[in-house]
Amino acid sequence: NSSVDQCWNRNPNNNTNYSWRVRTTSLGSGSSNTGPVSDKSGTGNYAYTEASSGASGNVAELTSPIIDMSTATAPELTFAYHFYGTAINIMYVEGYDGTTWAVLDSIVGGQQTSGTDPWVDTTVSLMGYAGTANFQFRLRAISQGCCAGDMAIDDFSVTDGPGGGSCVAPT
């Protein structure tokens, strides 16, 4: 199933172009020489870009629901990623304050050497968005072309405080 949860937005919103999709671990990576063999837990789903549907320079965006961080004092975004493949280009992590998108972080090139390598956990500070009522983040992946360039992400969380703190609920 390649559907993205209705609270999230993907652009393009289809399964025929370079786009974000959802894969169930029981189906494996679906590709050879790129992507993880399972989600981080080994039993769930993960989101990924399908490189075999793209050309160099194609952009796929995955945007979160609006998150109310008006009472947050030290917000953080945490997630895991798996970038295995010889044609991995770049993924930007961007934040939105209701007016402007800004790049918060980026991951460039292959980070794993096989589909069985462990996922990498990362934390992105959202301190610049503390007190923001209409925050969103998005992942903007840019394709290097077909075919070994699947970028996978899993286990998203926005929390208030280092190390997890209390969850900041989407609105």
Characterization of this structure:
The chain has 171 residues and is mainly β. It contains no helices and 11 strands. The protein has strands at residues 9-11, 20-24, 45-49, 59-63, 75-83, 90-96, 101-108, 120-125, 136-142, 151-160, 166-167. Strands 2, 3, 5, 8, 10 and 11 form a 6-stranded antiparallel β-sheet that branches. Strand 6 (90-96) and strand 7 form a beta hairpin.
Kindly summarize this structure in a few lines:
By secondary structure, this protein is mainly β. It is 0% helix and 39% strand. The protein has strands at residues 9-11, 20-24, 45-49, 59-63, 75-83, 90-96, 101-108, 120-125, 136-142, 151-160, 166-167.
SSE map:
Blueprint lengths: L8 E3 L8 E5 L20 E5 L9 E5 L11 E9 L6 E7 L4 E8 L11 E6 L10 E7 L8 E10 L5 E2 L4
Antiparallel strand pairs: 1-4, 2-3, 3-10, 4-9, 5-8, 5-10, 6-7, 6-9, 10-11
Estimated share of beta-strand residues: 35-45%
C-alpha geometry = globular
Number of strands: 11
The computed structural class is mainly beta
Overall radius of gyration: 15 Å
| Chain-averaged pLDDT | 86
H/E element sequence: EEEEEEEEEEE
Reported for the largest beta sheet, the result is: 6 strands, antiparallel
Stretches where pLDDT falls below 50 for ≥5 residues? none
Helix content: under 10%
Number of helices: 0
Distance between the termini: 26 Å
